[in-house]
Design goal:
The chain has 183 residues and is α+β, with helices and mostly antiparallel strands. It has one domain: Aminopeptidase, CATH 3.40.630.30. It has four helices and eight strands. An eight-stranded mixed beta sheet has the order 1-2-3-4-5-6-8-7, sandwiched between helices. Helix 1 crosses helix 2. The longest helix has 15 residues. It is globular and about 40 Å long. 33% of the residues are buried.
Length: 183
């Protein structure tokens, strides 16, 4: 079963990262990483072709109150996002009675391969179980996104099934791998 969340007053911290609500002042940092070709496409959305696109997305993050900005402590810059969204498991008879949300994330290409995303995901998992009281957390990746697969494996998720995801912005179908982690 889906549960409502609001991260407005939530700040999470790990060794190298601060996860906090988005602010209007984050616009340039968002545009900097989201405008790089290949970053958004790995998650099913087009890279941002203008600062206005980033402004609209930023406002949706602020209004939605379910996506954290990932701030790199060393630089103070926003280098990605991690959201807590409705899960595919809410529609699956095997899991529909569980309190469950899905984690989705994106990271600036400049910071790939440094272990930052598993660090962020583990902190959000802890928050989901300890603070939100969820029974399970789900996550997924496109079959071609090997970086996300490694993050999911490092964080202890179990593969459940393969599905298909249609990306409206990219007008393309993707094979989607779905995972779950129980409390």
């Amino acid at each position: 079963m889906d549960v409502q969340i609001d991260i407005t007053d939530t700040i999470l911290e790990s060794k190298r990262l601060i996860l906090r609500p988005w602010q209007e002042s984050d616009l340039n940092d968002l545009y900097k990483y989201a405008s790089i070709p290949g970053v958004g496409e790995m998650a099913g959305w087009k890279h941002h072709d203008s600062i206005e696109t980033s402004r609209e997305i930023l406002q949706s993050f602020i209004d939605g109150r379910d996506v954290f900005a990932i701030v790199h402590k060393e630089t103070g810059k926003v280098i990605g996002s991690i959201g807590i969204h409705p899960s595919w498991a809410n529609e699956d008879d095997n899991f529909k009675d569980l309190k469950v949300k899905e984690i989705g994330y994106v990271l600036s290409k400049e910071y790939w391969g440094k272990g930052l995303m598993p660090e962020a995901v583990k902190e959000v998992i802890r928050y989901c179980f300890e603070t939100l009281g969820l029974d399970a957390v789900t996550c997924g990746h496109f079959s071609t996104n090997h970086q996300s697969k490694r993050v999911i494996e490092k964080c202890g998720f179990t593969f459940v099934k393969q599905g298909e995801y249609y990306s409206k912005p990219l007008q393309k179908n993707f094979d989607s791998m779905k995972y779950i982690l129980f409390r």
